[in-house]
Amino acid sequence: MIRPQQAPPEGTDGYRIMNRAGDAEFALAVKDLTARAQSTAALIAEFPLYPNLHLAYGRLLLELHENDDALHQFQEELRRDPQNIHCLLEIAAVRYQVDSKNALPYAEQAVKLAPHIPFAHYLLGACVSTSMMQQAQFQSSKSLAKACRAPRNLFRVGNAYARTGQKLEAAKARAEFARLNALDSRQSPDAVHSEQSSGLNRRNSNRSTARGPPR
Predict the structure, then answer these.
(1) What tens digit of pLDDT does each residue of 7-53 get?
(2) Chain mean position to CA 203
(3) Three-class SS of residue 190?
(4) Cα–Cα dist 180/176, whole Å
(5) Which residues contact 11 (CB under 8 A, 6 or more apart)?
(6) Contacts within 8 Å (CB) and 24+ apart, 42-48
(7) CB neighbours of 95 closer than 8 A, spacing ≥ 6?
(8) Is the dihedral of CA 175, 148, 169, 88 positive or negative?
């Protein structure tokens, strides 16, 4: 992210860092991701506060699908520069795929700092709309569970909790679903099939009647 006219003078740390970063990018271009990662990690270890090194390393880790480590690097860059728009956008984009609610503050901050960047507005809009949809689904599932304790509704509640990132609550709802479903099946042998369409059950019933009594 250094323009040629802004290149550091020869013989300075900045000049050496720029050239070593160029070597790392060359390694990426020839698909030597291991060499690229090692070069960037060594640079960060030696110059942990140099601008955008953590950002560069985080972007590499994203290409390697190591999202958690990438987020850590972006956060490190934000500690150095809380207004680093590139890190804010990267964090928002990664978190949006998992939990838009946690991505929202970063997208909001990005739009506040750089309202001229279209992608910032796109991310903010996506985070807001997804969060609203998830909340609506969650509230709907909670209402269903309160109105009726049928296993089917508890299963939906578990899915809603999972979509909103509440893993513990999702596990509890699904465990309760399994318990009630097992209880229903012990009380009535046909209860296991109660989630099927009534038309299917009716066809099975008609088929049995057509055969007549057992001989």
Answers:
(1) 889 889 888 888 888 888 888 788 887 888 888 888 889 998 999 98
(2) 44
(3) coil
(4) 6
(5) none
(6) 43/17, 47/13, 47/17, 48/76
(7) 71, 102, 103, 106
(8) positive
Sign for the pseudo-dihedral over CA of 30, 36, 38, 42: positive
Exposure string over 136-146, b if 16+ CB within 10 A, otherwise e: eebeebbebbe
Take residue 188 and report the two structure tokens written for it. 């009535």
Q: Do the beta carbons of residue 44 and residue 51 sit within 8 Å?
A: no
**DSSP code at position 212:** -
- Domains of the chain as residue ranges with CATH: 10-78 (1.25.40)
Rg, C-alpha atoms of the chain: 27
Q: What would the DSSP string read from start to end of 103-141?
A: HHHHHHHHHHH-TT-HHHHHHHHHHHHHHHHHHHHHHHH
- Residue 51 CA to residue 161 CA, distance in Å, equals 39
Token pair for 185:
């099946």
> Once rounded to an integer, what is the mean pLDDT over residues 200-207?
40
